[in-house]
Amino acid sequence: MPVSGGEDPMSQVRQMLRELLVGRENAEGFFCLCVSVLGHNDTRTHFLPLIQLLATDHNRLHTTLTSIYLEYFSKDEDDELAVALALSLLEVKGQQQTNTKPLFPDPKLQGQTDTQATATYRPQNSALQSQSVSPNGSSSQPPPAPLPTGASYAQLAAVGGRRQTQAQHQDSTSPRRSSGHGSSPQTERQRGPTQKQTDIKWSNVTQDVCASIATLTSNVNQTKDDVTVVECKVDQSEKPKRSKNRRQRRKGYGQQVVGVPRCPSAPPPVLLWFRRDLRLHDNPAVIGSLEAGGPVIPVFIWCPEEEEGPGVTVAMGGACKFWLHQALSCLSSALEHIGSHLVFLQPDEDREGIGSSLLALRSLVRETGAQTVLASALYEPWLRERDQVVVSALQKDRVEVNMVHSYCLRDPYTVTTEGVGLRGIGSVSHFMSCCQMNPGPGLGVPLDPPISLPSPSVWPRGCSLEGLGLARMPCRKDGTTIDWAANIRSSWDFSEEGAQSCLEAFLNDGVYRYEKESGRADAPNTSCLSPYLHFGQLSARWLLWDTKAARCRSPKFIRKLAWRDLAYWQLTLFPDLPWESLRPPYKALRWSNERGHLKAWQKGRTGYPLVDAAMRQLWLTGWMNNYMRRVVASFLIAYLHLPWQEGYRWFQDTLVDADVAIDAMMWQNGGMCGLDHWNFVMHPVDAAMTCDPYGSYVRKWCSELAVLPDDLIHKPWKCPASMLRRAGVVLGQSYPERVVTDLEERRSQSLQDVALVRRRFGEYVDPCSGCDLVPLPPRLVSEAMGGGMVNTGGQFLLPVITRMEFKHQSDDPDADAASNPYNAVLKGYVSRRRNETIAFLNQTDFTASVINEGAERRERQEQDQRRMEGLPRPLAVEQRGKRTPAAKDRFSTVPGRVATSHR
Ligand SMILES: Cc1cc2nc3c(=O)[nH]c(=O)nc-3n(C[C@H](O)[C@H](O)[C@H](O)COP(=O)(O)OP(=O)(O)OC[C@H]3O[C@@H](n4cnc5c(N)ncnc54)[C@H](O)[C@@H]3O)c2cc1C
């Protein structure tokens, strides 16, 4: 269609939209015109909100346009991002329901046209309602209208109209194309001077398109009389200041709602069942409850038996319960702030004295007359089963229950290995390939929080938050309270705003160092978002969007979200993951039952400062970073020979982010019996070279060692007695002696034990590859029949990733670890140069410290002598560690005083 000259861009788009709807223009032409007229940046920002209005009435057209948009704008995404997008971006209609019933119980609303409903507010429309399309543009659902042969959408757009040159110019200034930053609309909006202008344009776009749609639909005799149309607006004053930029960028997508459908009779209330989605931002269940049109009754039911599941999961340990209490308190305040209220319930008991969420919900339904229950789906197999029971029981009572997907980026029950196979299963790359190959329903765009929730005229009875007993502290005999959580309380902000600030802080700072330095324990280089993600105070979708829009993108960080989803996928495949080793032979491993060692490890009193610092940080704050978790796990397993389940359970009890799926997967992998194998073992001393090279982490958490020098603080047993004396350290008293000293021997023993069980249970070792074999769960068997598996007695066995060190050891089980060419200690995390430095320091540190001692003594004597003789003090020479000039690796810095070369 020719574009008339002289018109403003929006009139042109409006005109084009009319042409499109009456069939005189096709989807590609419309998209091309948008790019040509609005330019690259504005099209990227406004196109999806613009076509959102077509999502229901013209669903197929909407799908086609979304596909075109995605293909065009995903052209130059980097690989990592593309994979992450495979986990997320696309949306199918009704994505949020496991129950497929419509979300509009009100017949009046159901009866109206989709266009009208859209004007009221339909959050599912704010998600991209395209069919499943992979980031590379392939579609698993009806494909979009074909392109003219040989032409890409990018090319089509480039020939779209008379403003081509200008549009192309805008392209070249787009942040993504020029610098690799900020591919999303958000980043464009972040750019100060243009921001206001863009916002104004956007409101014009919305109004214009609404007007145009209204005009067009009036032609087909549709009336808006049944519905109170409330302007979709974002109340800037409601936004916490710190997140302003990011929040603003989203406003085209997650419009806030202040209105409900007008209805002749009062609609029944909706129960909004909060579980692990304790937030108002980007919560599809919250928005879904608004859609139902009735008063909303937010409710939280505490039923610990259901959380625990069938095995020993310690799903809600002490630290987690404490966090939950605080998070609920914050959510409750947030709800009060928007005129609502959170009802706390403890389950009623049935005739056998067993309480359940179902009973609690049933009595709430009876009390309130609610006909709809909305909740965010949970994926632990036992919780899913519980939910299925709730859904079917309430449905029998004629109550509609909708379980909305939002906890992970991908619903783990929709991930399949089709087209990828099982090779490499357990690794995050394999998992991401599965998601990429089978995109399935995804997440769409984040939703803003509601400004208000309609209240019932009478609130149901509930108990107090304290009544749930989540944060009850033990009492001493004298009646005083033991406040074990005091430090946790002072270390975190438990609110949703706390989560947002944490994210903001990370994206402004830590993310710049994340790629290379996320292992540092002495610097805040990771996001610290895990507890917020665990309790759903921050949605993974929100996090992904903000991360993608940040100035500095870290593919490694984005991959972490895939790790999270991988853990949930594994738990759905292997419900025994938290208590049963996946590799059968390893169940027979010889484990130690030395309780003293376990106690020392738990209390941070092993005598290894790095391990102790981490375990004390865990106890005091409920958290430690990933690298430190690996250090302490390696120590427990490879050096203390204690079973991984002990570590898992302690973590579950003490971590504020304790997450059954992630914790179990990581401990299984660390315990050598998961789907994946760590290909390294962290050395309790040498690992410090990466994470705490100057000892400041140890100084913080093991303050009794604070005065020791950098190079000896990780091994106080190597300090000369005089140094310990001066530092006030008495090993065995002020700081514990090492619980084990023969580290090398213990490592060898651990390796030999593995070789032993692999020999004993040879049927679980693949003779060709030497890999361990794992029995496959039925779901994977049915997906992968015929693919590279060995069948033994009805069990399907699959070769899984196996540490090279184990394969080699199996040839000579009695050999010691040092002679194994694949010795995993320190490998995988370090450079050869660093290994050499460590070896050098291990050899020389004792000698060096003795020499230093001597030199210092001589210096002191000389100074005393000079003072006595009244001579001036000699000029101080600055003495610092020296860096090898050509060193690429900062660990080549030799600590202490280094002699300058003598010519
Ligand atoms: C033995 C062991 C046990 C662990 N137990 C838990 C646990 O109970 N709960 C938990 O959330 N994480 C666990 N992790 C994973 C990881 O250590 C934490 O997620 C991370 O340290 C949290 O800090 P962060 O938010 O700063 O992480 P970041 O590095 O900033 O990562 C961002 C988010 O990605 C996710 N993530 C990061 N690493 C992983 C991973 N390896 N697997 C799955 N998801 C990941 C988390 O949700 C995290 O918040 C464990 C790791 C190990 C080695």
Automatic annotation (TrEMBL):
PANTHER family: CRYPTOCHROME, SI:CH1073-390K14.1. Residues 854-870 have a biased composition (Basic and acidic residues). One of its GO terms (biological process) is entrainment of circadian clock by photoperiod. PROSITE patterns: DNA_PHOTOLYASES_1_1, PHR_CRY_ALPHA_BETA. Residues 110-128, 192-201 have a biased composition (Polar residues). FAD binds at Y514, T526, S527, C528, L529, S530, F557, D657, A658, D659. One of its GO terms (cellular component) is cytoplasm. Residues 95-201, 234-260, 854-903 are annotated as: Disordered. The record marks W591, W644, W667 as: Electron transfer via tryptophanyl radical. Residues 129-140, 172-185 have a biased composition (Low complexity). This is Photolyase/cryptochrome alpha/beta domain-containing protein. Residues 241-252 have a biased composition (Basic residues). Keywords: Chromophore, FAD, Flavoprotein. Its cofactor is FAD. SUPFAM superfamilies: Cryptochrome/photolyase FAD-binding domain (SSF48173), Cryptochrome/photolyase, N-terminal domain (SSF52425). Pfam families: DNA_photolyase, FAD_binding_7. Belongs to the DNA photolyase class-1 family. GO terms for molecular function: deoxyribodipyrimidine photo-lyase activity; DNA binding; FAD binding. The keyword Transport does not apply. The keyword Thylakoid does not apply. Binds 1 FAD per subunit.
